[in-house]
Amino acid sequence: MALEKTDKIWMDGELVDWDEARVHVLTHTLHYGSGVFEGIRAYPTKRGPAVFRLTDHMKRLHDSAHLFMMDLPYSVEELVEATKATIRVNNVESCYIRPLAYLGYGEMGLNPLPCPVQVSIAVWPWGTYLGEEGLKNGVRMKVSSWRRIDPNVNPVAAKGTGIYVNSSLAKVEALKSGYDEAILLNSHGFVAECTGENLFVVKKGRLITPPLSSGALEGITRDSVMTIARDLGIEVREDNLLRSDLYLADEAFLTGTAAEIVPMRSVDDREIGPPGEITRKIQEIYFATVKGEEDRYKDWLEYANG
């Protein structure tokens, strides 16, 4: 999806013009992929733009940096306020938010420790990642020939920039094969996650998602869905899944900040069918929540205007 420019990007404590938000070609992270990032969304509400679980996202950014041995120069609270300020100055009601912590210019080589840690926050209007049609009627999935990176190869608990080469390879393979999105298995053959989303299957009324030990990222939308489902009285389990469990699911959907909550229509050309009752109910509550229409989860929203 093409980027829609906004006016300002926050960089190291200053709001700079979109076209002036630049880095040097010898920036360390550009060469070695040793950065961390987040994907966050703000939604329009009656009280103005509300960011979904903003503090939780910034805590995860700090956790990712810790795993990469990067010392962020800004606290969680400072990054939360910087995000709100960036939304306000760009006068957007709904937007995607991309915080990025990266190793800057000044050192080269595989030792990252002497490099300066820099941070940026950009916001821009962005529709749902897999399209409105996918959101409504489901997407066609392919199990990738690329395996999910092993946790002892890269710290997959971190949302690290270079780690997503693995996801990009799987995404390209799926698109070139005529599918909408890919599913990655881990080195043991169990389902891990999609290229940028967690996944759930419904079987006999139970909601099942791969455990974090599978290599799945600890998704914030994933956690939200598990909470919503339990509050609906649905049994939620974290359990290893085989690809055949996907083929035989009663319902299946993926979750992520960019994608939101998207039904899976088929996996490897095995039809799952139209979005089911549990998927639709969770979608309904999730979208009501992010728009400030669900009091039970009002604490998940942080308003840009205070």
Features:
single chain; 306 residues; alpha+beta; D-amino Acid Aminotransferase, Chain A, domain 1; D-amino Acid Aminotransferase, Chain A, domain 2; 2 domains; nine-stranded mixed β-sheet; eight-stranded antiparallel β-sheet; 8 helices; 17 strands; 27% helix
Strand content: 25-35%
Which class best fits the helix and strand makeup?
A: alpha+beta
Mean pLDDT: 97
Q: Judging from the principal axes of the Cα atoms, what is the shape?
A: globular
The low-pLDDT segments are none
Q: What is the CA-atom radius of gyration, in angstroms?
A: 19 Å
**Biggest sheet, in brief?**
9 strands, mixed
Count of beta strands: 17
Give the oligomeric state of the chains in this entry, treating copies of one chain as homo and distinct chains as hetero.
single chain
CATH homologous superfamily caption of the largest domain: D-amino Acid Aminotransferase, subunit A, domain 2
Number of domains: 2
CATH topology of the largest domain: D-amino Acid Aminotransferase, Chain A, domain 2
The total count of helices amounts to 8
- Name of the level-1 CATH class of the largest domain: Alpha Beta
The percent range for helix content is 25-40%
Tell me the distance between the termini.
31 Å
Order of helices and strands: EEHEEEHHEEHEHEEEEHEHEEEHE
